[in-house]
Amino acid sequence: MNHNPLSRHFASRRFPAFQNWFAGIALALMASTSLHAGPPAASKTDDHDYRQLIEQLSQTIRSEMEQKQIPSFSIALVADGKVVSSAGFGFQDADKTTPASGKTVYRVGSISKLLTDVALMQLVEQGELDLDHPVQKVLPEFKIADAEHSEKITLRQLTQHRAGIVRESPVGNYFDPTEPNLKATVASLADTPPVYAPGSRTKYSNAGVSVIGLAVEEAAGVSHPEYVQQHVLEPLGMTHTSFEKNEALLEHTADGWMWGYDRPAFAAPEFLLGTGPAGNLYSSVEDLAQFSLFVMGQHPEKILEDASLNEMLQPGETSDGKPLPYGIGFRVSDFQGHRRVGHGGAVYGFSTQLEILPDENIAVIAASSLDGTNNWITRICNQALEGMLAVRNNQQLTPPVSTEPVPRSRARSLAGVYSSMPGDASRTVTVDWIGDRLLLWKGTFQREIRSRSDTGELVLDDRFGFGPRIQQDQTYLVIDDATYTRLSNAPPPEIRDEWRDLIGEYGWDHNTLYILERHGQLHALIEWFYYYPLTQVSQDRFAFPDHGLYHGEELIFNRDDSGEITEVIAAQVAFQKREVGTKAGETFKIKRELPVDKLRELADAAKPPHEGGNFRPSDLTELTSLDPSIELDIRYATTNNFMDTVFYQQPRAFAQRPAAEAAVKVHQELAKQNLGLLIYDAYRPWRVTKMFWDATPSEMKNFVANPAQGSRHNRGCALDLTLFDRTTQEVIPMVSGYDEFSARSFPLYPGGTQRERYYRGLLRRAMETAGFQVYEFEWWHFDFDGWQQYRIGNLPFEAIPN
């Protein structure tokens, strides 16, 4: 089918399509605030003139936001005891009426932990808490499934993510939209087994910081949000910051956006996490700039003693004296030989970075209203930190690197499967192209390969960050100094039978867990972006890998009495099995809004929209007249379609001659692989599009083309098709069926099996090489280049000249 690309979105969510929101993004960025905090003099501090850096950053941010489609972005620079500059770019609201600024409020995710740990240290100074006493001394009811481990866990271990407990609590976890209270969240840990022995290994845990928050409440006698508000936020002048929803604050909060590898962005959910002390903070970059001044000991209000603050900023040590990545809450690392402290925040629809060089008294805070962009923000922050250091040392600023799409001819030559160790799925990478995008599937993430504008070198550059550089020839790729050799392009083997019923979607609309197969190994795609290979422990039990978000934890699939999978317990969180699309061999059906006779009456009385201008004369050509070996399954000439209605009196397929000839070339080229094209639909009279529209319920309108605009099928320049095996004449199975109204139809839908995705990609590449473009929501729908040159048609098949 042909859908309206300007109104189409993921129907189960009913959120605005991100491409609509981004119409006019260039204008939005042009209108965005310049990077300053007041008069130009505000960017000059003592003898340090940051104005050139600020202008360079502004140019970089505008360019990067347009390329990566970032809705809004705010940044503040801090140096020499003051806020040097702050600004916003883009618009903070979906209606694009309010420009973002340094005062725009964002959800800042895990930066919450730093405020919680400051509150903890205040109570330690007062003698109400002790970092090295067991948690059960202040919270006697706290426990996990192993009593011995429960008794050994200390507050210090929780602050340094060394307590060995699960990342997420069964109740109130990152996925849980029910907004339970803090006590219920912590109480749910009682049945969770230890992941590691306390103090033995770093295991990042939102649940652990929630325990700290509850300890703060117990010691202070007030709620965690109330204590932090009175003893941390108010003294530091953080007037646009809160752990609780506040209507006055929400008026200034940016609209958050989510996205996935296969779909445009959609509005982020707004529920508060049950692990509130670990992730519920709202704040602005200007407020976090005040916090950074406190961290550097330059804020006029002293809310912690120097010794306590210094302890927070020093990395902990292992039992054999090796430094840990965390101090008390703060992540501690190195930046060009300088100590860097801070934290990132990633929460639904938002990404934030707080980066401080305390020994140099400089900091940068940046936030965006798009999920999954922390590494990209870190790149901007690194440019700012490097620039401030250069200004301090009277050095030239390093010019930023820009990139552009890889030329299509080069992208085509790169497509394929590579491995640094054949037979090991974890060391296998896939390169594929779609339109002007060259994509790399490697390890945890799907990345985009682009070409440096200055040198032409290939480099990874996308919302996940920049780098590394990629070298290639016809037989290998070099990534991160690892060499990957091109493998055979033969179809992957079928998935193991025992895994078939595990494949699918689990969980919620706002956060879906995918179980899929890649290169012969079962994988989990969790939190939209993270691919993790799974190791089978027993029939329905698998282990996460020894890295990433959920290392040390497992997935357990549960079945009902009939043996059907009902849910998976992944890292102690229950994800219910989702019904997606239609079962194999079934055709999606709708309940028509009007009877068929009425639909025909309305269509016969209507006329296609008037189109002015010059058009090429129609030359509709029957595809089988050019090559009789092309197979047909013209669904709309039967009742085997989503309307359960016959629309065409003849099962024939027509297209404008250039499109028909291009499709025949694809069909003949595919014969080298013993494959061919099977056509579901081609030219479609406008009256049929009108009937589709009038029959479809309003909540599904985005799945059909609006007759007021017409369809590329109506112009004879769109084909719906798939592959068939020339020997068996069987249709090749794809990730979804034809005309399936679900996300499985998206050309980049990540689920299914490697074999299904292989054939889907093979079809797409073959068609796009011949001058077609796949429609972004349907793997089977291809538009021929130049479709705009043909007028909307309404001739029935029987009236088309032979």
From TrEMBL:
Signal peptide residue numbers: 1-37
Cofactor note: Binds 1 zinc ion per subunit.
Annotated residues for binding of Zn(2+): H713, D720, H781
Annotated site residues (Transition state stabilizer) in this chain: R684
Organism domain of life: Bacteria
Pfam families, per the entry: Beta-lactamase (PF00144), Peptidase_M15 (PF01427)
Assigned EC number: 3.4.13.22
Sample GO molecular function, one term: metallopeptidase activity
Active site: E778
Cofactor(s) the protein needs: Zn(2+)
CDD domains xref list: D-Ala-D-Ala_dipeptidase_Aad (cd14840)
Keywords carried by this UniProt record: Cell wall biogenesis/degradation, Dipeptidase, Hydrolase, Metal-binding, Metalloprotease, Protease, Signal, Zinc
Span of domain Beta-lactamase-related: 58-373
InterPro entries: A_A_dipeptidase, Beta-lactam-related, Beta-lactam/transpept-like, Beta-lactamase-like_AB/R, Zn_M74/Hedgehog-like
GO biological process: cell wall organization; proteolysis
Catalytic reaction list: D-alanyl-D-alanine + H2O = 2 D-alanine
Described function: Catalyzes hydrolysis of the D-alanyl-D-alanine dipeptide.
Stated family: Belongs to the beta-lactamase family. Belongs to the peptidase M15D family.
Entry protein name: D-alanyl-D-alanine dipeptidase
